[in-house]
Every structure is written in structure tokens, then in C-alpha cells.
Specification:
Two copies of one chain form a homodimer. Chain A is elongated, with a radius of gyration of 21 Å. The first copy, chain A, has nine helices and 13 strands. Chain A is an alpha/beta fold and about 325 residues long. In chain A, the strands form two sheets. The first copy, chain A, has a seven-stranded parallel beta sheet, with helices on both faces. Chain A has a six-stranded mixed beta sheet with strand order 2-1-3-4-5-13, covered by helices on one side. At the A-B interface, helix 3, helix 4 and helix 5 of A face helix 3, helix 4 and helix 5 of B.
Chain lengths: ~325, ~325
Amino acid sequence: MTVICLPDELSRHWLTDSASADTVLVWDGVGAPPAGIEQVEFLVPPYRGGAWSTAVLAQLPALRLIQLLTAGTDPWIEVTPAGVLLCRGGGLHGSSTAELAVTGLLMHWLSMPILFSQQTAHRWQRVGRETSTGKRVLIVGAGDIGSHVARVLRALGCVVSLVGRTARDGVLPAADLLGLVPDHDALVVSTPLTAQTIGLVDAELLALLPDRAVVVNVARGPIVVTADLLAELRSARLRAVLDVTDPEPLPPGHPLWSAPGLILTPHVGGGAIGWMDRAGALVRDQLRRFQQGEPLTNLVGPIRTEAAGPTVNA
Amino acid sequence: MTVICLPDELSRHWLTDSASADTVLVWDGVGAPPAGIEQVEFLVPPYRGGAWSTAVLAQLPALRLIQLLTAGTDPWIEVTPAGVLLCRGGGLHGSSTAELAVTGLLMHWLSMPILFSQQTAHRWQRVGRETSTGKRVLIVGAGDIGSHVARVLRALGCVVSLVGRTARDGVLPAADLLGLVPDHDALVVSTPLTAQTIGLVDAELLALLPDRAVVVNVARGPIVVTADLLAELRSARLRAVLDVTDPEPLPPGHPLWSAPGLILTPHVGGGAIGWMDRAGALVRDQLRRFQQGEPLTNLVGPIRTEAAGPTVNA
């Protein structure tokens, strides 16, 4: 028997078909915990809301595994207790996040912001537009999201370069990044937020992009240096699509709100209709693996061992 | 030697590399014709502006071939003189028109009209969104545009059905159309305007689509019955993407301007940056075929023979 903590009442149905005699609790980490919380071994925190504090997690002394519903693990690296396994929500949001990146690129190339304004003004006027055919796109991050973006862009006739942490078949190494940038019409950021990727897209990298290139960030805000991108947008040299920002949510009055050439969406890459079904399947499968001692999927690792200090792996 | 009439000065460079001793005139069909117009055998009319009148064409008695720069031939069917070959601009605008159809679908599924309004209002607020994964899309017209739309949508995870005039591998026959409609979340119209397709998308067909389905027209306005689509948009049962309208251009005050759930663009499917290079290659190739007696490409046919009346083929 495993005591499981699920994020909300709606997610209870993920496990109702399960034949196991597991005890299911529901808690989102806010307010008083339910009775039995101290026996929870398998925790699924809510999709929205970020990491729980160390103090909140201290109320789960039996915890052995945290199954996230997010693609990124960044806020959990700091708080995951020693010895506890951390698993990411791989495959839940990749395709929907990828299609947002593609949509943003297409909207810029097809002059959709201008056309949308014209429609609002009831004005029929042809405008110049580009096409995806032949566009060279550099994707940083060759996981779930990056590979899906590459597949769709290739079907659209783009020439795609994929960069990952390490070189492998069809993937160029991160060390080549700066050398590749000048030959591309768009840069898509779909890499996890880690010590290596914070501030990766800075003034130096942006300056290497050709005029009118499009920068797309569907990963995490702090990978792009906001002030550096803002300078390139204000001079109308570059265009951008941001689904994530730094800071996030973007506060009222922030200069990004009125930056020209920017398509800005409020972190809606994930969470598309249908993701809950995929999440249920992942949680059921992971629980079975956990109980039967099989290799786990989407395992980021025990962030800290019982004995030693932090062993960051992201 | 062939006397050729090109649409504008810019297009002259299409034939400058040609080693032939052809005579090239430039005329757009408006105003006084240039000297020698009566000797023109090979005519390339301007991309924009529609068909020339019978009276204008009567000034080209030596005419043997009209090479259009448009995908559609509809306005030329009526005026092409007897015995003259009519060729369409196949492959010039297919990919850019297809990507407009895909962009429109993605924009609806990702709630982009709402998100765009929120950005304009400087408001960060998550909204529900759909995803292309698993969406069932019915494409009417299995030519250049339709096949390209199908390829990209499949890469996005959609389930695609293609309908053409006649059944062939991967293409369902037009006779099946009404039976297929209820099982699809989107309908993309990419078929030529002919006697068979005028008014094809009417109240009866629209009523068969499920709630919230998206109707996309990137072909020609009169294929969709405007009043019937408008009724479905006003009741918020269906959504639409129109790059072509009936009437076109859409006049000020027309009810489509303020129809809810509509993404409206001013016929910008074709004419994307780069199409002129493809047009040059097509014209050079067609001229060579014409002069060497090889089979022509994109031949719609002689619309009328010298002896008999109209032989419409579109």
C-alpha cells in the first residue's frame, strides 16, 4: 500500500480504475494538511503555483517521490528533501508548448499583428508578408518541445538546426551556439532553466542575430536577459515571441508591455485541453513502476543524498 | 523568336539570362499598349488586378499562350480567346497560402485573438486553450495548397482527411463530402472556384459541423455563402478564418467586419516574399517548353477551340 497525495479532487479519477488499495489524499500544499499526511510517500503537487516551501514539505516525513506535472523542475531543485526522488512532467506539455512557438513565428512572418489591427479598424489593405519556406531556425533545447518544433517547422519548409547540451545524431553541441546564431532567421529557446542557461540569451548573443530575426522563448523567463532583448525590440532590429517573462507574471507598467515587435502571451504553452488525461496516464504508470520497483520515467534524480550536501542535476 | 509581354519592369530580369533573341514588351493591360503589342504570342498578366477584358485582349491578335501568376484561373475562363492556351501559376503561392490556413487554425485553437487583446490592454491573465493534437481536419481541395496544409497539420498531430474532385490514393471523392463533415473539428477550403464549388459551403453543410468547429477559406470568396457563415458566427456556434471574401475587397460597414470568432485577412495567402523568384523560374521554364514544343506545365487548357463554343475546363 502506498499513500499518495494528489493536487485536487478532479485528479482523483486518475487512480479510481487502479486495483491497488492505495490511500489517496488530496492537498495543494496550502492551509491545513489532511489527516494522514505524515504517511504520504508519493506526492503529485499542483501544476500551477510553483514549489512548496521546505517547511511545508517537512510535514511529509515519509516522502519518497515527487512527481511534478510541469516540464521544468527549476523551483523544486532548491527544496526537494534529501533522499527524495524528483520526477518531471515529461511529455505532458511538449506538443502544446511547441505549437505555441510555431504559432508565434508564423504570426510574425505573416504580419498577423498588423493584420489583426487592420481587422479591428475594419480596414482591408494588403501588406507585405514573409513565408516560412526557407527560413533558417535555430532551436536551443533538443528535448520534448524542441524536437516537436523542429518536426513542424521542417514540414513548413524551414531549415532547422537543433542544439542540445551534448552532441548526438541530429543535435549540435551547446558549445557551437554562438557560432551558429548569425546564420539563422529565428532563435527558439526550449531548454530547461539551469545554472548554465540563466541569462544565456544576452546582448552578446542577440547582437549576432541578423536584422528582423525573431526570438522565441517558451521555456523560462530568466534564460533571456529582459533588458537586453528590450533594447533590440525598441530599436526595431529584432522581433520576439515571449510566453514566459522575467519577472513573471509581468507587472503592470513593465516596459515589455509596450515593446514593439513583440507577441506576448501569459505562460499558456502548457495546460492545453487534454493535458490532464496525459497527466493521469503518467501518474498511473509512475505509481505502478514505483510499487513494482521498475525503473522510473522522467526521473531527474535524488537532488540530495541523505548523507552529503546538494547534488544538483538539472 | 517569340514576342513576350511581361507585367512590369521588375519582371524583365526573369528573362535577361535567356540566350534567345526574344522581344520583351512590358504592359499591365491599362492605358495605351506599347508598340509591337499586335505581335505578342506569350502573355504574362500582372499578379494583382484580375482578368483583362475581351476588348483589351483583342489588341493581341497573335496571342497563343497566357501564363497566369495566380493559382486560380476563374476570372480568365470567361475572356480567354478561342484557341489560346491558359496556364495557371501553379506552385507559386501554394505553400504561403497553406501556411496562412495553418496559422489561422492555430490562432483559434490557442485563443490568440483573446491573448492579443489582453496584450493590447497590458493584462496578464491565463486563458483556456486548445491544442492541435488530435484535431480532425477536413480539407476540400487536394492540390498544391491542400496537400501542403495536410502535411503541416499531420506534423502538428492532427488527423487529416483530404477531399478532391476524384478519389485517388489518400484523397476521398467530393461525393463523400457531406457525410464526412460531422466528424471534423475544422474545414479548410482550398479548391478552385468553378461551377461545382460556387456556394459549396452553405447553411446545410455548415449545420453539419460540430459546435466550435473552425471554417477556413483561403481559396475564393464565393465558395462560401457569406450570409450562411455569418449566421453561424453571430450565434457563436462556429469560428472562421477568411483570407478571401464575397464581396472582395470587403466594403466598409459589411457585417463580416464585426462578426465574432472571425480572423479576417485581406487576401494575403499568396504574394509572400520570394514568390517573384519562383514566378521567374516558372515563366522561363514555360517559355522554353513553348518554344521547343515540349508539354507545358500548369496547363488548364484552351478554354475555347477555334471552331466550337466554350469548352470549360477548370
